[in-house]
Amino acid sequence: MTTESPTSKGTILIIDDEKVILDLTSIVLRNRGYTVFTASDAITGLKELEHHQPQLVLLDYMMPVMDGLTALREIRERFPDSYVIMFTGKGNEEIAVELMKAGASDYILKPFNNQDLVERIESVLRIRQVEIRNRELTIERERLLAEIEEWNRQLEARVQEKTEALQRAQAEIVQSEKLASLGYLSAGMAHEIRNPLNSITLFAQLIKSGFDDPERLGYVDKILKEVDRIDETMRKLLDASKRSRYQLSEVRIERIIEATLEVFKPQALLYHVDVKRDFRTIPPPLQADPSEIEQIFTNLFLNAIHEMRDGGVLTVSLDHNDKELSVRVADTGKGIPAENLSKIFDPFFTTKSSGSGLGLAVVLRIVKTYQGRISVEKSDASGTTFLIRLPLAAV
What sections of the sequence does the record tag as coiled-coil (predicted)? Predict the structure, then answer.
């Protein structure tokens, strides 16, 4: 592409098979400050146009080999920034309409007046400048609109992210308040209930010692069994709401998982549950109470196996990075109904026909004790995956 002179008013290509027209028009336009190129036929003109890419083309309508109308259409298709003024010796209306439809910016009848030619050229170049500028502004506008749209998408995504984080934080606050309320309630209940339970146990044992009748002894045993059941419920309630005595030591979490899985081995065999381990990396020891960590996996494995009474796969995955360890406990049960997901950590919430509904509440309380997090990573018809994250520097 030829570079236009800084002092040039514009670049013009003249395509005409009449040498006189070429020479005279070139002289007139160069004298007016334009950079001018010439071609004596349309084929040569297209090559010149491709090389120089002028702002304007003066194109003769009647030419051999390739006529002006055909050349006009090709120029408009291939070089849309080069505007075209047609020279024609035929001044009828049909030709004018045909030329304008094909993309000509103007047409001039031969012979033409030099001043009229220059004025027409200046007018077309002004229009070209405005149209190209408008096109650039349109492109810039579309770019800015696309950029604004992308910003809006990012903003919406950030708002959604922050909203979800806020909802999670609010849910955690509500859950903490529930556990705190449960703690106050259970502490009082434990004192008020266990005292009469102790009396019931004592009197039942005294009654039992005075009976020889097996049937009556069986009744007393049932009373004592129910007392134990109430006491066990109170213990679970206290475990869910407050931390009992604990002793920190270095805990190898993979060993806790293995030991807990070993305890559940008979149940897994009974219900045809295949146990898979995916210990990708072994984390360093965790400062924790071993019984508390064991309680986490006891409750999770118990729930998982309960969901797979007809067989399935229990997968335990272990991994860690520089800051925290992560454990995934996945089953292939029926999944947790969507309407229950927000309630599964609530004390006493259960969908089982038996059970206290305190298992996951206990898990949550222990995990939060170690500044960790527990969530349902996935739950659908293919099963449920719980994800536990514990900081390696937990205290």
Answer: 127-179
Q: pTM of the predicted model, to two decimals?
A: 0.50
The structural domains of the chain, ordered by start, are 11-112 (3.40.50.2300), 167-241 (1.10.287), 249-391 (3.30.565.10)
Instruction: State which H helix or E strand residue 249 sits in.
Output: strand 249-251
Q: Is the distance from CB of 383 to CB of 326 less than 8 angstroms? A: no
43-59 pLDDT, tens per residue? 999 999 999 999 999 99
Distance between CA atoms of residues 121 and 127, nearest Å: 10
Given its phi and psi angles, is residue 312 left (phi above 0), alpha (psi -120 to 50 degrees) or beta? left
DSSP letter at 113 equals -
* CA gyration radius, the chain: 44
Q: Is the pLDDT of residue 125 over 90?
A: yes
Cβ atoms within 10 Å, residue 168:
12
Confidence of residue 317 (pLDDT cuts 50, 70, 90): very high
Reported as a pLDDT band with limits 50, 70 and 90, residue 185 is low
Distance CA 32, CA 355 (A): 99
What is the Cα–Cα distance from 260 to 167, expressed in whole angstroms?
34
Task: Answer yes or no: are the C-beta atoms of 328 and 296 closer than 8 Å.
Answer: no
Higher pLDDT, 198 or 81: 81
Any residues with CB less than 8 A from the CB of 34 and at least 6 apart, and which? Answer: 8, 9, 10, 11, 12, 121
Alpha carbon 259 to chain centroid distance?
A: 38
For 335: left if phi > 0, alpha if psi spans -120 to 50, otherwise beta; the answer is: left
